[in-house]
Every structure is written in structure tokens, then in C-alpha cells.
Amino acid sequence: MKTTALSDWLQQRLRRDGSEPVYRQLQQLLRQAVISGELPAHTRLPSSRLLAQELGIARNTVIDVYEQLAVEGCVVSRQGSGTVVADLSAERLPTPTRARSARGRGAGAEPGVAAGAEVADAHGAAQLSPRGEALLAAASVSTRQWGAFMPGVPDVTEFPARTWMRLENRRWRHPEPELLSYAPGGGLPRLREALAAHLRTARSVVCEPEQLILTTGSHQSIDLTLRLLASPGEHVWLEDPCYWGLRSSLASLEARIVPVPVDAEGLAWQDGGPHPVPRAILVTPSHQYPLGMVMSLARRQALLAYARTHGSWIIEDDYDSEFRYGTRPLPALQGLDDAGRVIYVGSLSKVLFPGLRLGYLVVPPALAERFALGSAALYREGQAWQQATLADFIEQGHLGSHIRRMRGLYHERRQALLEAIRQHFGDTLAVRGDDAGLHLVLALPDHVDDVALARDALAAGVAVRPLSRYHADPARAPRGLLLGYACVRPEAIPPAFAVLARQVAARLGG
Q1: Is 142 exposed, middle or buried (0-12, 13-18, 19+ CB in 10 A)?
Q2: What is the residue range of the signal peptide feature (predicted)?
Q3: Quick one: which of 209, 367, 391, 467 could link to 191 by a disulfide (CB 3.0–4.6 Å)?
Q4: Predicted pLDDT of residue 97
Q5: What is the pLDDT of residue 426?
Q6: In whole angstroms, how far apart are CA 245 and each of 129, 146, 206, 307, 441?
């Protein structure tokens, strides 16, 4: 393309209506011409002065465009030789075209994403690692995170946003530089102190502020714990059923997962039984997830004795114990530990709002310094600004009052859902795990495909989770649906459940 032809080509395509800066249009047009081959390799571009004159634009605009294209590798500028189009041929770059010809594809084959994907597959470039494949195989992420009857989601519309904004704005008036930088190892000391005081009162956790390690939530807490305390290939006990995210985390860490069944008293095992001695044991003793039973005191003491005897670590996931209806929240297992074998995992996602992404670990004193260092080394945490705001929120009593208020709201919604279930099904379908938390389990007959039922419900506008997917062997698992009620207002529960009831009835054959 000669200089005059290039100028005419550009003139026809440049828009002078002010909708987009001329320099950006010129840069895009020249880049596309080089990539498409309209400007072949080694073509000498007009000087910046000449092209600016012919286009009627500032010379500095052309200079800036040429310099940017040179940075991108589209052109090459040489002293005394001007600016020439770079060589982007297949002989210089391993493009899909070159690889396609090497595989013997015809000249008429269409280029594009599909061809590139085929090449990547052939050479393994698009393949995940076995660990990556295992991680995704265990994933059960929902496409919906709000509304009836999504389990595990709090009502974020009830969060005292004005109070939070006032606390945060006060800090912005006199910003502290250290709060805008990386957070110190383990997290902001003030928040660790405030959380330690709260946990001692609300959950009977025995701890000092130095034992708290702030994280972005339960997933990171468990990831950090197992990275520091377990090696790939070591056995880790999981409750069966359990939260699917635990299996995903363990798959990514290459742990050997050992499903252990639960009964009415929680984790059910026998010392010397069929389960290999684990490096770690993950439990939800105060409100088993997802079935809702509470681990008995006798079982708790037996588990602590087992961990002490075998040198196992107990990871206590206390994910939503603040919300117990009819009785006071139960003390944490950690408070009974006198041998330093329990790692306590907590989160503020259910209590405040999930987008806050703040959780914490309480570790034995002997591990505190190393966990703080490990957290800083692995994750290089920030969020010090939010941590400072949260510390103010707790110290001024807003956390405690918010929990008490939400406990009352969730109790009302739980009652509305139970009443809706009774109206549609009477006593024919059992309800489990409704004494605490943000969800309950609606049991189904074994012949019902709960995965298909959940799919039908979602198509009808109601989100539920199939119980069988929380078991290690879904094919042999009992059937049921997890119904979350926290983020559904009481007046919306009856009509939403009526929609679900029609889907359930169709699967029941009624």
C-alpha cells in the first residue's frame, strides 16, 4: 500500500465527529492493517510529518501512535530507515496457522478460535493439571446467589449500611497511611483484639488476640491450615455429608479425603475402626452442615481424646452458630480443648455480608506466630482499611446488636417456611436441621432425583440445592433439598414455596 493509498484509506475511515479521539482511531486502524496483512511486513510507513499533513492532524498525534505500535511490536523504528511494518509471519511466531499446516490441514481451513483450540488440545496447552481437574470435578458453584430459597445467604439488605458508612467516612477524613498498605501478618491488631473479646463472650472460645489470624473467609482459613499442617497425600477426615467447598479445597491440596458418616450425635467413627488415622479432621460440631445435628458432649470429648492420642488436628468450622432458635448458641468445641489440637475457623459472611470477605482462625498459642508469618507469605493480605472499620463496628456494640436483630428476623422467616411446608405436605415430608442456621433440609423419598428436581425448580425461578450432592457417593445418598430462608422476606415465602411445591409434587408423582 503506497503512502498516498494509505492516506486515502485512513481518511475514509477516520471519524471527525468527536465520538472517539483521532489518535485512538488511527492506532486501531494501523494495528488492524498490520495484523490482517493489508500492510505487509517491511512496508515503510510515511514519515510522521507527511502523514500528519495528509490527514490534517497534529504531528505529535502520529508520533505517539507510531511509538505505541512499536511498543506493541506491530512496527519497528530504526534510525535513518524510518518506521517499517514488523514481520509477523508464521516463521517468526508459533501462530495457529503455522501449527495447523504442520498437522496437514488444507489451505481452505478457516482460521480462528476453533483452530487455535484444536492446536492447544493437540499439544496439551489447554489441558488442566490433574489437580485442577479434581478441583473442578468437586465444584458445585451455583449460578444464583440470592433469593428463594438459596441456602447459606444472609439478608444483606438488612445490614446497617448507614452505620458502616459513617464509621468509614470518619476514617477517610484523616486517612492513616498504614491502613492503605498491606495488612500486618495475622491482621490488624485492633480487630484481633475486638474479635477475641467477642468470641470469648459469644462462643466460649478460649483465646488471646495473638491467636487470631484474619483471612478472607473459611476457604482461605482451611487452605492456610492444611498447607501449614498437612502434606499432600496425607489423610483428612471429612464429615459425610459436608459442604462441597471443603472437597474442592482438599482436592487442590492433594489430600487423601476420607468420608466419615454422621449420626444423631455428629461425626461417627470408632477408634481402631476402618478409617485410617488422619492428619486433620474437619468438623462442624455446633451445627453440622448440611444436616444440622449438634455433636454431643460425649462425642466431643471422645474426638478431642482421639486427636490428642494420635496427633491429629481438629479443624472446627463454626460457620453460622450465632443463629440458634429457642436456645442460646452452643459453646465451641475449641473451648474444651486442653491439648492445643483444635484450629477454630469462623467467618463474618453469614453474620454481616459475604462481600466483606473477612474470616478468621483461632490457633493454639504455639502456632500463632508461624500462622501469622505463613499467612503473610502466602497471601500478602490487604483489607486493613475494612479491618479498622470492622474493629470500630464491634467496639461500639453494633455487631452484637445486629446479630440479635437478625436472629429475630431469621426466626420469623424460618417459621414462615415451616408453615408453608406443613400446608403443602403436612407430615409426609420430614424437615431436618431447622434448629439453627440459615437453612433447613426437606427430606425426599429415595426414588426422587433431587438433582433433577433442583434443576426444575431453578427453571421455575426458585433456587434450592440437592442434598445428594453433599455426599461423597451421591448415587447412594439420601435425597432431599436444602432450603435457605434468610434472604427471603416472610411475605414472599408462601408464594415462592408454592412454586417449589408444584415441582416437588410432580417428582413425587402427585
Answers
A1: middle
A2: none
A3: 391
A4: 41
A5: 93
A6: 19, 18, 27, 24, 18
